[in-house]
């Protein structure tokens, strides 16, 4: 049998293997999305936004309830993972306004702009490098040694290294660890 008879011929319409039209019924998802370490819900929301975006402007306007209904999750879950996608540098959101028939301004849906995947990869690699390389403080600041020492005011009983930590840094680290399932590190505050 000649193999050319099966390539787009009339015989193909009678088989379950119909030729795929990549422009109308499918949309591409960049492979790099799977290298970013995203949560599966982030990937789902990102894929949905890619599906409904305008291919010329890379934008779409959709509400949280619509995304939640399409993906079968709660509105709060959608809001949480949209914020995470923004933090990863994959999307940007803008608030929109609508004018009602009465002439009143109301909040509209969010306008999502799909950002280039290269920017998100660069941001991801930069964060990985920051984690991998220890931060170094300059030894000489030009001030006398007595002026460089910080008093351990209200940190009685704690080692000096804990007294120097920024409270916000500690809270951010705890939140990040909790997000990844680690409740408490041995020897941590």
Structure explained in plain terms:
With 189 residues, this protein is of the alpha+beta class. It contains 7 helices and 3 strands. It has helices at residues 40-52, 64-71, 75-88, 117-132, 145-148, 160-164, 167-179, and strands spanning 59-62, 91-99, 105-114. The protein has a 3-stranded antiparallel sheet with strand order 1-3-2. Strand 2 (91-99) and strand 3 form a beta hairpin. The radius of gyration is 26 Å and the shape is globular. Residues 1-13 have low confidence and may be disordered.
Proportion of residues in helical segments: 25-40%
Query: In this structure, how is the largest beta sheet organized?
Result: 3 strands, antiparallel
Strand content: 5-15%
Poorly predicted segments: 1-13
- The count of helical stretches stands at 7
Number of strands: 3
Give the neighbour order of strands across the main sheet: 1-3-2
Could you list some keywords that capture this structure?
about 190 residues, 7 helices, 3 strands, alpha+beta
């Amino acid at each position: 049998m000649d193999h050319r008879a099966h390539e787009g011929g009339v015989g193909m319409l009678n088989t379950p293997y119909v030729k795929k039209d990549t422009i109308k019924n499918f949309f591409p998802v960049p492979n790099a999305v799977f290298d970013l370490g995203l949560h599966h819900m982030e990937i789902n929301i990102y894929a949905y936004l890619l599906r409904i975006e305008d291919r010329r402007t890379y934008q779409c306007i959709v509400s949280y309830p619509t995304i939640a209904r399409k993906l079968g999750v709660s509105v709060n879950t959608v809001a949480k993972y949209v914020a995470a996608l923004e933090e990863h540098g994959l999307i940007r959101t803008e608030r929109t306004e609508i004018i009602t028939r009465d002439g009143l301004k109301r909040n509209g849906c969010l306008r999502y702009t799909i950002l280039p995947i290269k920017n998100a990869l660069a941001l991801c690699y930069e964060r990985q490098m920051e984690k991998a390389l220890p931060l170094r403080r300059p030894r000489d600041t030009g001030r006398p040694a007595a002026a460089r020492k910080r008093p351990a005011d209200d940190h009685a009983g704690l080692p000096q290294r804990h007294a120097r930590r920024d409270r916000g840094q500690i809270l951010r680290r705890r939140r990040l660890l909790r997000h990844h399932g680690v409740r408490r590190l041995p020897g941590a505050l």
